[in-house]
């Protein structure tokens, strides 16, 4: 794939192979009954035909529909598969991990305005009352905290390179939660600042390009840049990075992300937090990670390799993923969180 094509495909559908689910405990997860039910729920030829006729693209729509159904069979809706998931989680401690952009807040043009609704905040607050809960974001920790505004959560900012526990009086706080728990890239602070200044100056000539300082990493946004300029922008970024071999470039949703070349990502953050919560090598934990972006795949892979818990990809379109379930958009994430709280409350009453 050319660099330009890689950019253009950033939000596009990718044919999705079945993820391997080697699992120590759930050899095939989600269970086949759930996969079949979810797929059947979506295989309504009448609805497919109506949708295709409405867009006037019958010939194209049939294979696309089949591809979508196939993907949904492998990554069923976490709402449709909720009961199977609950059964797998029975007797275990659920730990909730939530990405921010595209998961708790909808994707918007201006990153500074990606606020979370009060209803979503209530849903997250509800989950945190019952389960240890962490926000894992590419944003810098302070910024994502200012969006979420819940002191009782764990926060892993800068793609997991800046982790802090909840306020000590919080229900799920551990004794060592006071202060910063983990900053594996602190030696990179000066260089990230330097590259931030260099990138801001270099990309200034490209209308719509913005550089966001996420403390231990940087984001170069191109959502508001004309598509013809995307290649030039990437070349500019690469030319600056030539001078900094200790930094690497990754991609998110219409964003180029620059971060230290250390082996630390959202997957490491998830493992670190499970350990900090006392669940290292435990069979009694059921982590749930919900995210929408490529960087969330590192966490999905960790869960898949552990064979514990589930990854849920937020996407309306088929994408290659190691997550086992899917949700279409933040409103479904909110619904899922409410369902989880309700089911916990009902087991407490029993
Ligand atoms: O890990 P996340 O919490 O998902 O953070 C990933 C990036 O999210 C933000 O950018 C994305 O959302 C913006 C607001 O909706 C959107 O304008 C942008 O195109 C998206 O890529 C954030 O601004 C980045 O710094 C994060 O790296």
Automatic annotation (TrEMBL):
Keywords: Hydrolase
GO biological process, one term: trehalose biosynthetic process
Gene3D superfamilies xrefs: HAD superfamily/HAD-like, Trehalose-6-phosphate phosphatase related protein, domain 2
Pathway: Glycan biosynthesis; trehalose biosynthesis
Sequence segments annotated as region (Disordered): 7-54
Transmembrane portions of the chain: none
Top-level class of the enzyme under EC nomenclature: hydrolase
Catalytic activities: alpha,alpha-trehalose 6-phosphate + H2O = alpha,alpha-trehalose + phosphate
Role played: Removes the phosphate from trehalose 6-phosphate to produce free trehalose.
The protein, known as: Trehalose 6-phosphate phosphatase
Organism: Panicum virgatum (Blackwell switchgrass)
